[in-house]
Give the backbone structure.
Amino acid sequence: MVLEKAVVMDGEKIRRTLVRMTHEIIERNKDLEDLIIVCIKNGGNDLGKIIQQNILDIEGKVIPLIYLDIRAYRDDLKPMSESKPDFSLLSVTDKVVVLVDDVLYTGRSVRAALDALNDLGRARKVELAVLIDRGHRELPIRADFVGKNVPTARKESVLVDMQEELPLSSVTIVEGE
């Protein structure tokens, strides 16, 4: 049984937070020409699209968006297949990568994403943007752009429910299976 403990963010709070994070990304990366948004599948997909749209709305520039499947690079999950994805048509060489995910927890997803990025080339710089940082790191990884720090117990989970209609989205802390 899953017990909902708290709604941390509603859709409007998520929208405002992503606009703020977008402004921070723009401020830190004045020259947007070399910027690429890389979304960690699946948690970062919707967030990356919103950040991409926000940059377009604010700066009038279309930033490339890549969806990165990290399953073959995970060290804590049994790989679905032995082969890694074919990235031959993609490159991040000499680009500034903003890696996007929904929740930063142990850091293992980010580590896997960094390994996958190496197969895409040598980025000039990699920055990490997460909607929620819940702590409990097992690896020395820190986000550059954080929507909200949400201290949690290990037995709790943070659910990010992104909907097509952003006002219907939410971030919730739950406990149980």
The mean pLDDT is 92. The radius of gyration is 16 Å.
